[in-house]
Amino acid sequence: MLIPAFTIEIGHPILRGLTCIGKFDGKNPALTCATSAGKIFFHSPHEKDQKNQVRFLNINRKISALGAGRLNPKLGKDLLLVGAQTTLLCYDVLENKDLFFKDAPDGVNTLVVGKLSGLESEPLVFVGGNCSIQGFDAKGDEAFWTVTGDNVSTMCFCDVDEDGDLELLVGSDDYEIRVFRNEEVVSETTETDRIVALCNIRKTTFGYALANGTVGVYSGPGQRRWRVKAKQQVTCISGFDLDGDGQPELLSGWSNGKFEVRSDTSGEVIFKDTLRDGAAISGILQADYRGDGRVEVIACSAEGEVRGYLPAGEELALMVDQGGISSKVEDDMLNELHQRKQELLFELRQYEAQGAKARNGEKAPGMVDKDTKISVSLVPSTQDHCLYLSLESSNDACIKAAVVFADRLFEGGEALAVHERTPSSQLRVPLTHSKDVPAELQIKALVGGRASQTYQVFELLFQLPKFAMFVQVEASAAKEYKPPRAGVTFVLPGAQKRVRLWIASTFQTKDKQEDPNGPIDDAFISLRDGKLLWLRMTPEAGGTMHIFTEDMELAGDVLQDLCSALQVVEMEALAEFPQEMDTFQSVLLRVDEYNATRLALTAEMADQSNAAKTLVIKAEDARILGDIKGMRAAYAELYTLNAELIGEYNKRANNHEQLLVALKEVNHMIQKTARLRVGAAKTRIVTACRAAIKANDIQGLLQIMKSGAAASHR
Fold first, then answer.
1. Taking the model in full, what pTM does it have?
2. DSSP of 553-578, one letter per residue?
3. Residue partners of 531: CB distance under 8 A and separation at least 6
4. 450-482 pLDDT, tens digit each
């Protein structure tokens, strides 16, 4: 339980997610938040001037990320890191000076300060942007760069493998939570919506929040403990040991001002409160803010309210046990348990009544024969571009409706319900998922007689293969098709039998007898767009695998899943995707054009700004000399010049937006190329691509993407 310790009214709005606490003098914590008009305020109860506890810093830019940390341990104090649209500022608050100001063309969506496993260096500030992650040291030099699948929305550090070193957890707009060890992605977990927040809880455990109102906890990558979903949006999460048992709980802030604490093991609500006027919570922080040796939880609202909480002490806990303090949480829990008891009693009475009728030889309405079974199968439909989940009863019992529950399968939800007006012994549920993910389907089917008004519920489990949306082409029909010209080739010595087992477990394959030592030559058609995916394995080099497809992203998914199943830790590959490479070349040319336009516009605006300054001075001189006519002429000319400046600014803003889109495509292409390799080879290709881009070596970049090695003509 938490008890309110203090409340502070700042009087200024606090922007969502732009809060932190830093010891900028090396001793005392200061609350730091971004507010309106490109400003940052600092609040500290340790200021000598108690009447002036709030100080401001003008950034004069739209702030997109905010953080504090000991980027330079030698200074013995925290530094302030401020991210804007395309810039990163490192600021020494105590000395009131900039330490570095860096351009970040990929944008600054979020930032964290810390040390990453595999990087033998001082702490870095890691900046998540447009499909990329950059790391800067205390001097502002780039010491780390890698790519990820989409725009980075949140990051945190966590020791996911318990090796004593921290890995970087990255949440992005493509619903993925990736774990980076150095520049290598060691784990990917797909969620059901955009990741908006991540936080370390303890050891391998971390919390997450999604844009659809879901919060939950993982005990490791892909090992979810629990999750809950609400109608409101999650604005922030944090980990805090509420009861002193050494296991931090998950704290969450919501858009309706609700502040919750949930158990990290079960998701049970331990404490909840609501901030004034239901204002959205902008951030949840922790610090010994009052300097009394006790760490408070600090909740900041969008309206400027800052409320501190302390864990309930032994004396308060004793008062609660003796009834001295009423607990709303306990009352709600008792009411919920009582309601559940009533539901179970009603269900028990229904079963008893049905059992009594069965003993008397009567058949209750809706009851089906005890030997009734429901079979589940997959039926692909190239005409409807979907995969049908077919439910069929073993007798004349009718299936009225079915509800299918699954993670990451259904757009905008976790369940799909299908019902028939005229029920029959068969029911089909259409599956049209856009991402290839394995899923355990939990099916609840309502089964009964044709004229019955009540139904029995059959609960079924079915494992959906990852690439179930690809249907295998019959061997006789495969002769009519030709493998796509694009694809990726790599060597898997002595793995033919294991590859066969992998294909059987991840695709919909026909039951057919094959020579276990013969070549693999399987063609599949996508139910989504009708395009071909061809898997071929030949005996060259002990086993050469070919994945033919025009879709580089699909090739990467297939390759990564295969190598994961076969436990391949490092692998190079040869990639041939001529169509995607041609498109990528045009993107690179657009980037060059946008950069050239940006420089030209910047130079023109600089000249016009100087001309505007000259006109202001000229107009003022004319005013002093009493030359009203000259003053009017100067201001008229200044008015025209100002309109031109506004027009040039709009051009520059539009050019910048187009440049960001093009840079995102570049970074995404590097990510797709890296996924065609495994282990250290993946890291090497990202580094080589970055070097080629910096050197503006387009041909070398294309050669690297194809072969994984730098071009010979440098």
1. 0.82
2. HHHHHHHHHHHHHTT---B--EEE-H
3. 484, 525, 549, 550, 551
4. 777 778 889 999 999 999 999 998 877 777 888
